[in-house]
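FIELD: query
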Amino acid sequence: MYKIGIVSTESESHSTICTLLKSNGYEVRAIEDKKERVSIESLVILGGDQMKFRQVQEWVIFAQEHLKTPIWIFFPQCSEKERDILLQLGVNGIVTKPERINEVAMLIRNYIIKIDSKFTYISSNANQRGESPLELKDSKLSIIIENGKEVQLTKLEYRLVKTLYENKEEVCTYEMLAQTLLEAGAQADFVLGQNRVANIICKIRAKIAQVNRGELNLIKTIRSRGYMLTLTA
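FIELD: result
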């Protein structure tokens, strides 16, 4: 059974979402503490009067780093600027109108159907054809992914991808990436360096997801260690 975690301080929305998800055949579990280690396949965050944008953003960053699952948000008070920030962080979908709360369950259902029916793992298809699912373009500070789709990056983002590519299929630790990318102050502060690297990774993943609709997972998080670029299934 597909397992969905829910983060919420809004009892009414929580109850409604749980009912909708359970009616679709999903197993639902409440997550109340970031220290709690759970096995889930998607995360739903319910923002509102009691959970403000900053808390929602913190949960998104935490989930990207530690849960590594698709993220769906229901947040009626979300502004356009806040919505853009959350999408840049890599969330899969945001519903902002209270009367459309049922869309959260629909978005998750459509995502699962798409993954199950159309995609096994896109990089394995490239490997079968003897191709790499990733090509770097130094002159344009961009990368070319499957089917010729181009992703434009900043200088810092490109340097990070290039470092991962030069060490593909191997773990690049937080310390290594911080030394490669950041100034001395960030290198000296491990937590600061780790957060800066994690933020850059989130932005790269979001850009890849925008042009490839979340179908390609090149950068894997290696818990408590760092990241790895993988070009194999």
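FIELD: remark
The chain has two domains: 3-118, 122-229.
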